[in-house]
Task: structure prediction
Amino acid sequence: MSTYNLLNNNNIGIEIYSFIEKLFPICRSITGNGTRKTLELIKQHIPIEINDIPSNTKVFDWNVPKEWNIIDAYVKNSKGEKIIDFKISNLHILQYSISIHKKISLDELKNHLYTLEEYPNWIPYKTSYYQENWGFCMSYKQFQTLEDDEYEVFIDSTLENGSLTYGELFFKGEIEDEILFSTYICHPSMCNDNLSGVSLLTFLAKTLIDKKTKYSYRFLFIPETIGAISWLAKNENNVHKMKYGVVATCVGDSGQLTYKKTKQGNTLIDKIVEKILVDSRDSYEIVDFFPTGSDERQFSSPGFNIPVGSLVRTLYGKFPEYHTSADNMDFINSKSLQDSFTKYNSIIHVLENNVIYKNQNPKCEPNLGKRKLYDLIGANKELPSNSNSIFWLLNQSDGNTSLLEIATKSNISFIDIKNMADILVSHDLLTIVN
Amino acid sequence: MSTYNLLNNNNIGIEIYSFIEKLFPICRSITGNGTRKTLELIKQHIPIEINDIPSNTKVFDWNVPKEWNIIDAYVKNSKGEKIIDFKISNLHILQYSISIHKKISLDELKNHLYTLEEYPNWIPYKTSYYQENWGFCMSYKQFQTLEDDEYEVFIDSTLENGSLTYGELFFKGEIEDEILFSTYICHPSMCNDNLSGVSLLTFLAKTLIDKKTKYSYRFLFIPETIGAISWLAKNENNVHKMKYGVVATCVGDSGQLTYKKTKQGNTLIDKIVEKILVDSRDSYEIVDFFPTGSDERQFSSPGFNIPVGSLVRTLYGKFPEYHTSADNMDFINSKSLQDSFTKYNSIIHVLENNVIYKNQNPKCEPNLGKRKLYDLIGANKELPSNSNSIFWLLNQSDGNTSLLEIATKSNISFIDIKNMADILVSHDLLTIVN
Amino acid sequence: MSTYNLLNNNNIGIEIYSFIEKLFPICRSITGNGTRKTLELIKQHIPIEINDIPSNTKVFDWNVPKEWNIIDAYVKNSKGEKIIDFKISNLHILQYSISIHKKISLDELKNHLYTLEEYPNWIPYKTSYYQENWGFCMSYKQFQTLEDDEYEVFIDSTLENGSLTYGELFFKGEIEDEILFSTYICHPSMCNDNLSGVSLLTFLAKTLIDKKTKYSYRFLFIPETIGAISWLAKNENNVHKMKYGVVATCVGDSGQLTYKKTKQGNTLIDKIVEKILVDSRDSYEIVDFFPTGSDERQFSSPGFNIPVGSLVRTLYGKFPEYHTSADNMDFINSKSLQDSFTKYNSIIHVLENNVIYKNQNPKCEPNLGKRKLYDLIGANKELPSNSNSIFWLLNQSDGNTSLLEIATKSNISFIDIKNMADILVSHDLLTIVN
Result:
């Protein structure tokens, strides 16, 4: 019997927000000390195992890249003024920039500058993981002020053999079938994408500690793409146990929730998330699977075909702040984080409680009156809604129909119908089949 | 070969209405003489068998209740004026009230009064079958005029061992598979709910007398819930023959027709009723199954799972007159009853004629011209609609496709396509497979 | 490996139009020299085989009719003026009129005149294939001017044993499964119905000459109805090889494209045509199968059940010019013919290229960067659309999913995704399964 319950904590949104605040200043990348430090901070909350895969390890069609670490970076004008300073924003550096220190003309400098003309105040986020290069990102507004001058560019970074680091936490359940919650830890100082996903999953994993569950649960805190590929390569033989998954990202902005379906499109995890969204009575959007996006791409590649969806608020790329310095602490809020957390929490709750019941009095309705199960006076066919859930449960519990199916068909919330099922079990009117 | 035809009687609505008028004054309940008298009047039309099940008989989770009969009931004020009089409206009495005769204060009386504040002129209909009690129902308007006084309450009723009485009529067809038409006879003086159903099924059953039919048909005139439960308990071993059913109720009001689907939702009976509604070219509504409602609840409980739908006009509970004194002879009309009857009549007609044909000339079209089957001049691909039905029948009659499927796919009315099928059979172009 | 390519010829519409112009003056019917002459002209373009079936041959429920040839026909008034002259329009003659030469009153003449009151300037097209008769068709406007007079009617025709003539062209492919393209050659001087279909299929067949194809293709140029019946009767034993078909008619008017689905409704040919219409980004209409229409009626009769659809512009009978003298060279245009041709051409192209691929690197995504398959800078989840097609192909190519399915699911045009598939094959990332 599962001991997992919905978390009853109205401050969880604030806690998730605070943890994001703590992680925000760190300069993360797909490898390096920033990522390692992020994982250490997560470990203060939940007992993740921190794993390292050496650079150059072959992982399917890829090789684990060299480890990149950056100490400092700036551009100075001829007056010696730092016009770009990595210490002010770690987005200023093109990720995986190699070390450099030289004086160059404006024209040459411009070949290494990245800006965003449509949003002139924002610094874009850019990477060059797999091609050696160096560069700086800056606001278009500042870029326009650059004068013909001799500039001193300075990047103090290392790109050498090391490792790719990721965090993993596994909760063993009653059955081997496991559910994946995955998020990526490789983005530097941006909040919605993706400290929101990192922090939410940290607190979601916490709810499983010391709980007995039916399913096993696996949490991955990995660098995007190469991290998922590396994990799958390393764990190839056990991947068949992974039945469903959800990728957590962009869960902190003020937009409505969006669910990107799994590749298969109509699996248990899809039905669960859709029901949770319906039950919320809030507006939401459901989008069909598409093969770009985050790590669901790797998990559902044809060699694995694991149904992995993604529950986000505003979809990456659909908000202008995406991959810019504007995706900061002001762009997210604790209310949205609380709401997103509640949905993720509900996913586990439904998974754990989606049992099949069998009506123990299957021939005609039982006499509810003698069991004090509803008001004895009255001959109204429009019964109060809790009576409705009684009748739906009794009518549908044929030993083959899951609670989720009954909740969906009846349009009664999963929680309400689950609570009523407990009452009917206590009256010996229902029994659990599986 | 079925000899069942559609009834061609434009006065059937008036006849159904007149019979309702005759049944209206009787005080019915789930047991007792009113119900028995109602069945005797039905028996003057159709040869129903009237059955009694003794009180206290165990029927699944229930016991047949004691038999209730009421002789008189009133409330007098201190001046001796009858302010509530059962003889004026049998809705004044809370059904299953026990005998009482005493003087009480207004305050005490109020504990036993039922009113309907939203419709202050109407008397509500209330019951207390399974909890001994007594009470009166009255209009809220009159309730407000009650003064502080000493009231004489008088109820002369009996609640003792007797029996539950129901009527049943079975027509044996060529095959054992049987179709249920069920209605409930337990409501006192209310017309739409449910004398309309009782009277309609009486006249529907009449159309089957002395007819040869493919299916067997069973008509039940039973007290709601406990009657259905009792019948199912008594006939448990033969219930597997019951393939589909329809519960008749609320078929006399002026609203559009509504079909409440079976639990299974897409069975033959569902398709038949939907096609009949489409063919009518009138507006209608189709609602999904819900497990509250009338006796379809018992027939489709998981121990029986019989697909039973319900064809009504305005759904119970959706009209304000429901379960009040306003559900009277003015609330129903013969035109609606005629229309409802026609649809019920059509259900049997389609069931009896939904055969599968096989094209006897399956390779290319037969030469219709040489058979004088259509106008020989003309090269118009837009053929007249009766030609359309010829071509649909010939094209689709592959020995697997039923006439109902062809009618539905082609959007030709079942009657029209059936008539054309008869012609093609007479030309040896089609033959009946089953 | 198929060598079939899309025809790249912007003048094909003009060529189709010119060929219609050449065929227009000929008086065709279901038999006779006009039809034979039409087939000879087609043979100047493509190597059709011209077949004759003798009159009176039994073909299923029918007999091949006598051969009808007409030399001349007119009506003269008493002044000797030809008021109706077959030489001016071959629509003036009721098809299959027998010879006559006599003087008759206006009243008697009127029994043999066919007009179209709604469109008073147009001559209707009428036939009397299977009942001996004679008659003239004329504009209603002229009909109204007819005065009481003695008229000389003259028809010089022959109706005697001869043959029914049709053309056939078969392209043998790698597999026996064959695709039918059928059109009818029996209509006299009318353009949209159906010289447009005749000319389009002539040029479509041309694209297959000297090509290696996977499927076999069969082109039929037959008299409508009796021609299809005759062909099916003669080829009954080989019809099982015919897997799908399309009837070409009314492909030259300025209306949008309309696809009439096959009887089965959801077969490969239906999916292909629908995808081609979607890819065009033009408006179009899809209509369900109906069993009147053209020769799809015979091919999908229950004895054969071949899925045959019809891709037309404005559906026959839906344009007022249908079966009148107004269906002339002005009613069609080369732009529409070009567009219709392109779609028919695409049907073969999709059939030939709808292969199933298998991802050769199925576990996680391959490293596209090292293969120079997309821009190496950038971390944007919203990839450019050609990257999208890469990811769709890699994600979906599990060895079971056809290219058409991937194109449909991704809403990427078949051409675009096919081009990208070729690139991925050249990089050994995909391989063809079937």
Remarks:
- Chain B has three domains: 12-65+163-353, 67-160, 356-432.
